[in-house]
Write a structure and sequence with these properties.
Blueprint (H helix, E strand, L loop, with lengths): L1 E5 L4 H12 L3 E5 L9 H11 L3 E4 L6 H4 L3 H22 L2 E4 L26 H7 L1
Parallel strand pairs: 1-2, 1-3, 3-4
Helix pairs in contact: 2-4, 4-5
Length: 132
Amino acid sequence: MRWLVTGAGGMLGRDVVDTLRRRGADVVALDRAALDITRPDAVEAAFAEHRPDLVVNCAAYTAVDDAETDEERALCVNADGPRLLARACAASGTRLLHVSTDYVFSGTARTSPYPEDLPPAPRTAYGRTKLA
């Protein structure tokens, strides 16, 4: 099975790649320079070249405070990019694991971890873009 990890230059991406490689997985690690998930042509080319069986999307606009003033860019990376990945996965029969955040919730839940059926209620631009 070939894994493709997007956002492989970030903290989460590096950890995912390291864990998979320690377990002997066939991993293609692509950072933002190697794959800009917001560009349809780049996503298409990455799928054509690497032919992944499973994509782990660790790519994200994670500058929480900056998202308040740059919500359009955050939305592009956190919503449009994953949409492109999902479409490419659907077209090629590839599975997709998309990583989100607790920022999609209000932060007022009294249980931990959050239950899977807790309704989202983001309070920040970052949370809204991750929910999208």
